[in-house]
Amino acid sequence: MTNDSRKPVMAGNWKMNINHLESIAYVNKMAFSLIEADYARTEVVIFPPFTNIRSVQTVIDADHLAITYGAQDISAHDSGAYTGEISGSMLKKLRVTYALIGHSERRAYHHETDESVNAKVKAAIKNDLIPMIAVGETLDIRQSGNAVDHTLNQIQGALKDIRSNYVSELVIAYEPVWAIGTGEVATPQDAQDMSLAIRQKVAKLYSQDVADKVRILYGGSVKAGNVKAIMEQPDVDGALIGGAALDPDEFLRIIRWPDQP
Ligand code: PGA
User: Fold this and answer.
1) Which residues, in sequence order, are CB contacts of 82 under 8 Å at separation 6+?
2) Is 105 tagged catalytic?
3) Which is catalytic among the residues 111, 112, 175, 250?
4) Which burial class, exposed, middle or buried, applies to 183 when counting CB atoms under 10 A from its CB (0-12, 13-18, 19+)?
5) pLDDT level of residue 2 (50, 70, 90 thresholds)
6) By alpha-carbon position, which residue is closest to atom 3 of ligand 1?
7) Annotated catalytic residue: which of 36, 85, 103, 112?
């Protein structure tokens, strides 16, 4: 993290954990513990399940907290007969800031493709939500030596027909699938190498100026014990945290990454 124009982001992805009552306790704990200096240094984002968003919004609004929140997915459609889906306009009404798009679990279990990811990125932008696009390779792909090509193709697919003014605002989360929930963390150098490759790809597709503004996060078994070394990499602007963010105390330690060993 060397570029001052990119504010670091620590984003907790709760996945299908924490019910709406527990989410109130969680956000209250964060509110009680975080101080101005934390918010000034790092953007704090949570991705609760859809059923919790209203509860989270209520606590954040009531206490004017500087915590932002996002949805773990978004429909590509505006409205209509799409049972089970949630539209961008519904999320916007709940003052959601981010839409997490193309998480590897969505790609694996819900057959999301670069085309559907691209359609969801467009749906987010249309509704003034900031896409947080997740990309990354499986272990097979890494072992075959194609991790960079694979990940950069995902970027190219996700950004098809997206204008540069939107690209400079969005967030990309590089999450090697083999490091998610496995305890197997990529080395800080791996995280740096891929983040740099992603930034160079954005520069090629758009411009260096756009690439310098895009925030690139690393995700995959991040915890308080390894976050500092990852954050010291010049092209890593934050982390997307799953398991370790389920414990608010651990998430707080991650948010305070400069104080960690
Ligand atoms: P993990 O998950 O931190 O539990 O590895 C990261 C993610 O899937 O976003």
Assistant:
1) 75
2) no
3) 175
4) exposed
5) low
6) 242
7) 103
Residue 186 pLDDT: 87
User: If 0-12 CB within 10 Å is exposed, 13-18 middle and 19+ buried, where does residue 132 land?
Assistant: buried
Dihedral sign for Cα atoms in the order 227, 233, 239, 242? negative
DSSP characters over 90-123 = HHHHTT--EEEE--HHHHHHS---HHHHHHHHHH
- By DSSP bridging, strand 171-174 and strand 215-219 are parallel
Q: What per-residue confidence (pLDDT) applies to 149?
A: 98
In the reported structure, the alpha carbon of residue 138 is separated from the centroid of ligand 1 by a whole-number distance in angstroms of 14
pLDDT at position 1: 60
Ligand 1: residue whose CA is nearest its atom 1: 242
The single residue listed with the structure tokens 């602007």 is: 237
Q: What is the pLDDT of residues 160-205, one digit of tens each?
A: 999 999 999 999 999 999 898 888 888 999 999 999 999 999 999 9
**Ligand 1: which of 138, 241, 250, 254 to mutate, most ligand atoms within 8 Å of CB?**
241
Query: Which residues, listed in sequence order, are joined to residue 132 by a DSSP beta bridge?
Result: 100, 171
Q: Is residue 44 within 8 Å of residue 68, measured between CB atoms?
A: yes
Could you report the per-residue pLDDT of 10-49, keeping only the tens digit for each?
A: 999 999 999 999 999 999 999 999 999 999 999 999 999 9
Residue 150 annotated among the catalytic residues of the structure: no
Instruction: Name which residue sits closest to atom 2 of ligand 1, judged by CA.
Output: 242
